């Protein structure tokens, strides 16, 4: 008989964010957390269901243009220190275009990456940007998930 015979629902909705402040040109999971690969979410003690990650451009000066780049989303068993291709795995990539952030004449739509995956306890979501941010700009990654 199956161990789980009823639907599993997340008990606690979560949202977390991280600002991507530097480049990591690799897609194999290697990096240093908080230096070139960024901790976007630490998943729950019983695992989590990750709904989506959204990227938004930000700027500290009005009318500043971001650098076009590719954002990468990883799952990892690491939350601090160095990561390797043995403990950090690429989940998705998305193009982040060059846009004018803090624009007075228009808005920038969020760039959503739907995931819809259940991940086990002890894992984290990490993000990178292939190109470094332009002066006065950055990309923010917002993670939406629920803990079991």
How would you portray this structure in words?
This protein starts with 11 loop residues before the first strand and ends with a strand. The strands form four sheets. Strands 1-12-4-10 form a four-stranded antiparallel sheet, with no helix packed on it. Strands 3-11-6-8 form a four-stranded antiparallel sheet, with no helix packed on it. Strands 2-7 form a two-stranded antiparallel ribbon. It is globular, with a radius of gyration of 16 Å. The chain is an all-beta fold and 148 residues long. It has strands at residues 12-20, 31-32, 38-42, 48-59, 64-65, 69-76, 82-83, 88-96, 100-101, 111-119, 124-129, 137-147. Helices cover 0% and strands 52% of the residues.
Q: Oligomer, anyone?
A: single chain
Secondary structure: helix percent: under 10%
Unreliable segments (pLDDT under 50, ≥5 consecutive)?
Answer: none
Q: How confident is the prediction overall: mean pLDDT?
A: 93
Provide the structure class.
Answer: mainly beta
Distance between the termini: 22 Å
Adjacency order of strands in the biggest sheet = 1-12-4-10
Q: How many β-strand runs? A: 12
- Helices and strands, in order, run as EEEEEEEEEEEE
What's the layout of helices and strands?
Elements: E1 12-20, E2 31-32, E3 38-42, E4 48-59, E5 64-65, E6 69-76, E7 82-83, E8 88-96, E9 100-101, E10 111-119, E11 124-129, E12 137-147
Antiparallel strand pairs: 1-12, 2-7, 3-11, 4-10, 4-12, 5-9, 6-8, 6-11
Structure keywords:
mainly beta, four-stranded antiparallel sheet, 148 residues, globular
What is the compact description of this entry?
The chain is 0% helix and 52% strand. By secondary structure, the protein is mainly β.
């Amino acid at each position: 008989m199956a161990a789980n015979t009823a639907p599993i629902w997340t008990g606690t909705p979560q949202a977390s964010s991280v600002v991507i402040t530097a480049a990591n040109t690799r897609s194999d999971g290697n990096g240093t957390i908080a230096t070139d690969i960024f901790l976007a979410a630490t998943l729950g003690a019983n695992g989590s269901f990750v709904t989506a990650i959204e990227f938004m451009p930000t700027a500290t000066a009005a009318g500043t243009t971001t650098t076009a780049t590719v954002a990468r989303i990883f799952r990892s068993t690491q939350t601090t220190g160095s990561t390797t291709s043995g403990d950090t795995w690429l989940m998705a990539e998305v193009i982040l275009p060059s846009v004018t952030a803090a624009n007075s004449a228009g808005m920038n739509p969020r760039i959503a990456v739907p995931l819809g995956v259940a991940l086990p306890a002890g894992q984290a979501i990490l993000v990178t940007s292939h190109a470094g941010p332009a002066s006065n700009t950055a990309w923010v990654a917002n993670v939406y998930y629920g803990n079991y």
